[in-house]
Amino acid sequence: MDAKRVKQILSSPAEIPVTYNGAAVWIDQLNEDGRTATVHLRGPLEERTIVEIDELTEE
Fold first, then answer.
1. Which of 40, 44, 13 shows the shortest CA–CA distance to 27?
2. How far, in Å, CA of 44 to CA of 58, rounded?
3. Which helix (H) or strand (E) segment is 5 a member of?
4. What does UniProt give as GO cellular component (predicted)?
5. pLDDT 10s digits, 21-30
6. How far apart are the C-alpha atoms of 41 and 59, rounded to whole Å?
7. How many whole angstroms separate alpha carbon 44 and alpha carbon 34?
8. Alpha-carbon gap, residue 18 to 33, rounded angstroms
9. SS3 content of the chain, % helix, strand, coil (to 5)
10. Which residues contact 12 (CB under 8 A, 6 or more apart)?
11. How far apart (Å, rounded) are the C-alpha atoms in residues 47 and 34?
12. What separation, in Å, do the N-terminal and C-terminal C-alpha atoms of the chain show?
């Protein structure tokens, strides 16, 4: 995924499914470097992780 698409997903009112290593995640923010994003797993756990945006996949 690229930074432009991450920004589109963040600004969209729709729930757009995104995965990271096969796990469904929410994108919390695109980080200032433009190459990483802060995400957390969908569900009760809200542990946040910084990941490379090129490892995110839109379902």
1. 40
2. 21
3. helix 3-11
4. endospore-forming forespore
5. 999 999 999 9
6. 15
7. 28
8. 20
9. 20, 40, 35
10. none
11. 21
12. 11
Owner of token pair 């995400």:
39
DSSP of 10-32: HH-SS---EEETTEEEEEEEE-T
The secondary structure of residue 55, as a DSSP letter, is G
Q: Cα separations (Å) of 21 from 9, 27, 43, 49?
A: 18, 14, 16, 13
Q: What is the pLDDT of residues 17-59, one digit of tens each?
A: 999 999 999 999 999 999 999 999 987 777 899 999 999 999 9
Which two tokens mark 6?
Answer: 């991450």
Whole domain around residue 40: which residue ranges? 3-58
Counting the structural domains of the chain, the total is 1
